[in-house]
Amino acid sequence: MRLLVLQTIITVSNYEYIFIFYFGQNASIHYEVRATGTLSTAPIDVGDHVPYGTVVAPGVLASYHQHLFSLRIDRALEGYKNSLVVEESVPMRFPHDANPFGVGYVAESSIIEKEPGLDLDHS
């Protein structure tokens, strides 16, 4: 099988965003988004673990943050056996020991079973 690959790269601040469409001869469509760049990090006490980031080295925390993209596509193009996963950012309780500055959040994923109206309120 051959693929037609359409790709664009956009540089924004410390990231390069790579957007790729794969079109197959069998009418399949795959979409991929990649981000490369330098992590934004913060100091943390060695041995500490928090729910709002990943320890990337002793004493170095990479806080969770968002890269938001919008893509509209009919998921039935390839048939109805596809699935769509939506990942939402949910604020952590504040004030809380694990969220001392009120900026922490966790990500929750869910599979969309039917076409919904999604909450687009960015607040």
TrEMBL record:
Residues 2-118 form the Copper amine oxidase catalytic domain. The modification 2',4',5'-topaquinone is found at residue 15. Its EC number is 1.4.3.-. It comes from the Eukaryota. Keywords: Copper, Metal-binding, Oxidoreductase, TPQ. It holds the Pfam family Cu_amine_oxid. Its cofactor is Cu cation. Belongs to the copper/topaquinone oxidase family. This is Amine oxidase. It comes from Massariosphaeria phaeospora.
